[in-house]
Design a protein that fits this description.
- The complex is a heterodimer.
- By secondary structure, chain A is mainly α.
- Chain A folds into two domains: 6-138 and 373-388, Tetratricopeptide repeat domain (Serine Threonine Protein Phosphatase 5, Tetratricopeptide repeat); 173-372, Tetratricopeptide repeat domain (Serine Threonine Protein Phosphatase 5, Tetratricopeptide repeat).
- Chain A has helices at residues 6-16, 20-32, 38-50, 54-67, 72-85, 89-102, 107-119, 123-136, 141-155, 157-170, 173-181, 201-213, 217-230, 235-247, 251-264, 269-281, 286-299, 304-316, 320-333, 338-350, 354-372, 374-388.
- In chain A, helix 4 runs antiparallel to helix 5 and helix 9 runs antiparallel to helix 10.
- Chain A is globular, with a radius of gyration of 23 Å.
- The termini of chain A are close together.
- Chain B is of the alpha/beta class.
- Chain B folds into two domains: 2-78, Methyltransferase, Methionine Synthase (B12-binding Domains), Chain A, domain 1, CATH 1.10.1240.10; 90-215, Cobalamin-binding domain (Rossmann fold, 3-Layer(aba) Sandwich).
- Chain B is 59% helix and 10% strand.
- Chain B has a five-stranded parallel beta sheet with strand order 2-1-3-4-5, sandwiched between helices.
- In chain B, helix 1 packs across helix 4 (61-78) and helix 3 packs antiparallel against helix 4.
- The chains are: A mainly alpha, B alpha/beta.
Chain lengths: 389, 220
């Protein structure tokens, strides 16, 4: 690929900034000026997809692939366009298969291929694709959500629910919730030097939170210990300790700290979160988990994932309709919440509402690929490879 | 009494004495506390005491970890029962002849099983005579027929016909599937007693039907 034209570079910049209309115009300018590379059509396809113009997206992505059969971002746009348009699962299977061939280690291609197989009622092949995705990346939460849905269809909720929870714990959004409840949602991930932390409660707890966000459990534990040595009845410090224990899979220590914290401050969101998560992991404590998550939902109603956690505990209690309402609240708060979309799909399946379930899974796919910035990752790799050549 | 027992349980945790911890649990159980209440009345307060002792430095990190191990060993003695009680109510269900849709049936069957119903799941493509045969074998008085196409949904009437022909007049036939949701009159046309809209609806309807059958003196 000879260097990209200034019009394409301008289009890329506009697209990254979310100025879809202007970016489309810049792409057309590039085409008019003779820059007819596959990447221009791929970029246009992605922009059309952003605007929900599926047929146009399909046409542009097809043009890109005709121009260069190795244009991976075009396959991504084409597959997503087929999936979101609906009723094109046969074509979708072929496209995701091609993308998995063009970029064999692209985990999402296998996840998408599985979803396309599932939509076309090739259930065994779908499970095979998701397992392949997990072989490539065992922490792939969307593949696990899909396996949970497959388990629900084949074995019912009791066996599917552990998979939903397993996927949820792989999902980075669960940790993000804790830090959001802590007020550190936007805090940077930085190394904390305990020797430089002021010897005040606020400074110690703030630094402990930052250390936990940086996965530095030992520093966090040291700072929490200092705070508790000064004030043993500090519920916030105990909640941080509970989270640190949770991260070390020490469930009983986490439960002990969280229960103590809740006894001191019954509405402390971080403590309720830790206690609910510990309870949700224990067979027989689903009712307790639901109770705790109801309290958390009252305390922190603006966080989508709080409603997801509540919904999952309701699923375990066979309260599918109530769970559906909690999932819908989560989706309303955060339309990009993949975990809520899959959970909502599960509740639709319990009501025999298959089309709505499929729609939620397709939306989850859309938001998940968007969250990953997958189009741009493939686009940049493709453009860079072209320029090297 | 409960606070005292929780303190004893906490002490057994700290002393790393699982036998004593279990004895505390058994003493409280023997005093009439139900299994489902043991966790809240005894275990959770003891764990809260443990957290407090660690926070205050009354026990060190090592003792906390060892106490948590004992707490783990005792956990199964205080957990509320996960399994639902057997309702004693038997239900025969299956997807009707020439229909191979299985998802809705699987989810409803698993939900009912989990809720303590005795579920006889006949699978897909089940002939009316097979429904009747299994009803006779099990003594069930509740049948749930699943159908996802209009044609197969209409064939549910033949299940009722076969049941009658076999002398089973008192069976409750429930139906489930898209056609019955789309056309609310269809269930009545095919001789069904009710429509199951989903898994949770199945629990509600089954509870009501089981209650009605029990009050009518019939065996559910």
């Amino acid at each position: 690929m000879a260097g990209r034209s200034p019009a394409v570079i301008a289009a890329e910049d506009l697209a990254r900034r979310g100025q879809v209309g202007a970016a489309v115009r810049a792409c057309h300018d590039a085409l008019a000026l003779g820059d007819r590379g596959a990447h221009v059509h791929a970029l246009l396809a992605s922009l059309m997809l952003d605007g929900d113009f599926y047929d146009e997206a399909i046409a542009e992505a097809t043009a890109a692939i005709e121009s260069d059969p190795d244009c991976s971002p075009a396959y991504l746009a084409l597959g997503l366009a087929y999936d979101r348009r609906g009723g094109m699962s046969d074509q979708s299977v072929l496209v995701w298969h091609e993308l998995a061939e063009v970029v064999p280690d692209l985990v999402t291609a296998h996840v998408q291929l599985g979803e396309a197989f599932s939509a076309a009622a090739f259930d065994e092949e779908a499970v095979g694709s998701w397992k392949r995705a997990l072989e490539l990346d065992p922490r792939e939460s969307r593949a696990t959500y899909n396996l949970a849905i497959a388990s629900l269809k084949r074995e019912g909720m009791a066996l599917a629910l552990p998979l939903f929870r397993q996927a949820g714990e792989l999902d980075p959004s669960q940790d993000e919730l804790f830090f959001a409840l802590l007020g550190l949602a936007d805090a940077p991930v930085i190394a904390v030097d305990p020797a430089r932390v002021k010897p005040t409660r606020e400074a110690r707890l703030g630094a402990a939170g930052l250390a936990l966000k940086a996965d530095d459990i030992f520093t966090a534990a040291e700072l929490v210990r200092s705070a508790l040595d000064t004030q043993p009845d500090d519920a916030e410090a105990l909640a941080l300790a509970a989270y640190a224990y949770l991260k070390q899979e020490a469930a009983n220590e986490a439960m002990a700290c969280a229960l103590r914290a809740v006894s001191l401050q019954p509405d402390l969101a971080t403590a309720l979160y830790c206690l609910g998560v510990v309870y949700a992991r224990r067979t027989g404590l689903n009712r307790h988990a639901a109770r705790v998550f109801i309290a958390l939902a009252k305390k922190a109603p603006a966080h989508a994932l709080v409603h997801v956690l509540l919904a999952e505990s309701l699923l375990a209690l066979q309260r599918y309709e109530q769970a559906g309402r909690a999932y819908r609240t989560a989706v309303r708060l955060d339309p990009a919440c993949v975990r809520a979309r899959f959970g909502l799909a599960a509740t639709y399946l319990t009501e025999g509402r298959h089309a709505e379930a499929s729609w939620e899974i397709r939306r989850a796919a859309y938001y998940d690929t968007k969250r990953q910035g997958l189009f741009w990752k493939l686009y940049e790799e493709y453009v860079a490879a072209g320029e090297e050549a | 009494m409960a606070a005292e027992a929780a303190a004893q349980l906490y002490q057994a945790f700290v002393d790393q004495d699982p036998a004593e911890a279990i004895q505390v649990v058994e003493r409280v159980r023997a005093s009439g506390v139900a299994q489902d209440a043991l966790f809240d009345l005894l275990y959770a307060p003891a764990m809260g005491l443990l957290g407090g002792a660690w926070a205050s430095g009354a026990i060190d990190e090592m003792a906390f970890t060892q106490a948590a191990v004992v707490a783990e060993q005792v956990g199964s003695f205080v957990m509320p029962s996960a399994a639902r009680r057997d309702t004693g109510v038997t239900v025969v269900l299956g997807t009707v002849h020439r229909d191979h849709h299985s998802i809705g049936r699987t989810i409803v069957a698993a939900t009912l099983k989990e809720a303590g119903y005795r579920v006889n799941d006949l699978g897909v493509d089940v002939r009316p005579s097979d429904f009747a045969e299994r009803v006779q074998e099990t003594g069930a008085r509740i049948v749930i027929a699943f159908a996802e196409t209009m044609r197969t949904a209409r064939s549910v009437s033949s299940i009722r016909d076969v049941l009658r022909a076999e002398g089973i007049d008192d069976a409750v036939v429930l139906v489930s599937g898209g056609p019955f949701i789309a056309d609310t009159g269809l269930a009545r046309e095919v001789g069904a007693n009710g429509v199951i809209g989903g898994a949770e609806a199945a629990l509600r309807i089954m509870a009501r039907v089981a209650r009605d059958l029990a009050s009518a003196g019939g065996e559910a």
